[in-house]
Amino acid sequence: MILGLEFPPVSHAINWPGIFFEGTPFEVNKVVILMWMSVALVFGFYMAAGRKQELVPRGLQNAAESAVEFIREGIIVQTMGQSGMGYAPFLLGMFSFIFVCNIWEIIPGAQMPVNARIAVPILMTAIVWVMYIVVGIKNQGPIGYFKNSVFPPGVPKPLYVLVAPIELATLLFVRPLSLSVRLFANMLAGHLLLISFAVLSTALVAAKFWAVLAIATGGLLVGLVAFEILVSFLQAYIFTILTAVYIGDSQNPEH
Amino acid sequence: MLTTILAQTTGDMEAGLTAVGRGIVYGGAAIGPGIGIGLVVGNAITAMARQPEAAGMVRTTMFLGIAFTEALALFGFVLAFIISG
């Protein structure tokens, strides 16, 4: 029985039946509801934290202030410098939303990272893509921006034949593609990993003789849950810091 | 009779080859990034050990390097699912 262990096809792990408006493009399923809950949670958290601002922060305000501090000191100062402080609200909102969306992966009852469906990462990447191009055009002018990014200064003239197409493809396709696929694939991989070990553990418990092995796989499952918390945080951090790097590149070209 | 058996084996073989192809795609895509992430993190640790006061800056850059390197492996991961028999 163990050797013939059948794993369900991958669509069982990520396709959820619709709850409202089934069969239309506006179908609402579990993932959409989790996404709405993430929006409400992030919004509610910062509203509640900012309602009564005290000089010595306590409770929620303390948590929110350390999040803001993390975005400012850990991300903006390191990548964009002081001139990027205006982007702190955008980056904070993006970081918090992605983190809450990811952490559903390990919340019992939900156990589905919203970012394991590519729709949310693609939408956020589209926002970032439009944003860094608009910021670049605004700061350097349309011609200057494309000249600086497609023909980087300091490269020997003949090499531009090689460098220019690569830089153009990086600017327009590779950056958004890798940004969205990185978040999506990491969350999908983590989700499948947890599912595989859960299925394996239950199958081992059901097969009487092999139940001893379930101690090992179950222990590993607990460890993997802790690992996925780290991955959820790290992916939100990486998405935000790459956004900051791209916008910073458009803002100050001489990097 | 023979054609039915042949058709059946071809179908089985296709499914099997798809599975093998998925394995090769992801396995191949994981080699380079595996080495790359090892290099990135190893050198970051060396840098941190030499200059502990620069650890914060090194860590940020290390995560950036990991993110860029890891993307290639993840393309392979997604591609393995896109291949269908």
Verbal overview:
The complex is a heterodimer of chains A (255) and B (85). Chain A has 255 residues and is mostly helical. Helices cover 71% and strands 0% of the residues of chain A. The radius of gyration of chain A is 22 Å and the shape is globular. The longest helix of chain B has 49 residues, at 2-50. Chain B has helices at residues 2-50, 55-82. The model of chain B has no long low-confidence stretch (mean pLDDT 86). Chain B is rod-shaped, with a radius of gyration of 21 Å. Chain B is mainly alpha-helical and 85 residues long. Classes of the chains: A mainly alpha (255), B mainly alpha (85).
Short note summarizing the structure:
The complex is a heterodimer of chains A (255) and B (85). Chain A is mainly alpha-helical.
Number of strands of chain B: 0
Query: What portion of the residues of chain B fall into strands of 2 or more residues?
Result: under 5%
Most residues in contact: chain pair = A-B, 18 and 14 residues
Alpha-carbon distance between the two ends of chain A: 59 Å
Helix and strand element order of chain B: HH
The helix content of chain B is: over 70%
Q: Whole-number average pLDDT of chain A?
A: 87
What is Rg of chain B? 21 Å
* Largest sheet: number of strands, sense, barrel closure of chain B: none
Structural class of chain A: mainly alpha
Q: What's the overall geometry of chain B?
A: rod-shaped
Which structural class best describes the helix and strand composition of chain B? mainly alpha
Stretches of chain A where pLDDT is under 50 for at least 5 consecutive residues are none
